[in-house]
Amino acid sequence: MRNIESNVTIRERVSLHLMNLCGHATRPLNHRGFYQLTKKIGKLCSSDSTVQVRLNEDSLYEFLVCDPYWNRLIHEYFYYEPEIFYFLDLLKGSKFAFVDGGANWGFWSVLASSSAYGAVETVAYEPMPNTFAFLARNAAINSDRFRIVQKALAVKDIKDVPMDVGDAAERSAAGASIAQSRDRGAGSGILVDAIGLDRALSELHSAMPTVIKLDLEGVERAVIDASHWVDDHDCVLIFEDHAKDPACEVSAAVMARDWPVYFFHDDGRLDLIKSVEQLAGLKTSSHRGYNLFGAHPGGVFDQLFMKQLND
Question: How crowded is residue 207: how many other Cβ atoms within 10 Å of its Cβ?
Answer without folding.
Answer: 9
